[in-house]
Amino acid sequence: MTVELPLVTVVTPSYNQASFLEATIRSVLEQDYPRIEYFIMDGGSTDGSLDIIKKYAPRLAGWVSEKDKGQTDAINKGFARATGEILAWLNSDDTYELGAVREAVEFLCGRPEIGMVYGEANYIDENGRVIGRFPAAQTDYTRLRRGYVHIPQQASFWRADLWKKIGPLDPSFYFAMDYDLWVRLARISTLQYLPGQVWANFRLHAGGKSVVADSRCWPEMLKVHYRDGGSWLSIIQAKYMVRKAIAPLWQGRMRARLKKA
Fold it and tell me: Taking the model in full, what pTM does it have?
């Protein structure tokens, strides 16, 4: 029975995230799904991460700790080793909820026409306390091109055969490599949102990319837009201008939320 289940490859890119890394690793290894191939791609951390990785090394499919070109490069290096039929990546400050992998696999096995499935994700603080919910919603290629993303990367699983057609991630992206991937997947397949299925936790903390580098997200999304023939007279361009205008307010609220938590 176990051999017949599809293999799932999970990749965790990491760099100096020792404070959160063990929780991430355990959330993968403690899943109630028996066929997980787990790679940790560390960028040469100096904060004790290596000791944590070595602690769990016997249960990993593989790991490295070496200088890389950043998060996107680390993810690509991990997926280059993947042999799974279903793929996902989990950043080293995020975690899975128990049952996430099993439920995603069950859905994809029952719906062969679906290329990627995603569920809900909580926002958690640096101590793991839930402080909100990611605004996940159903989207598709047309809506993605308009900037209507609403996909929690932490709660997303997609088919490896599609990755082979459209991968790897664009190494020039620092922030929106996941958005670029969703657009490319949606162009050739169907993405499906499962409301009510909480599969992951998205950690917000003072050093997190979503807090300190949010301003880099929309310009990279626009790069995808123009690369694919989009016009400057577009919904996504208008959304960017609005987001740029309210960015100081958004950042202030985010920092206040984290301070309160």
Answer: 0.90
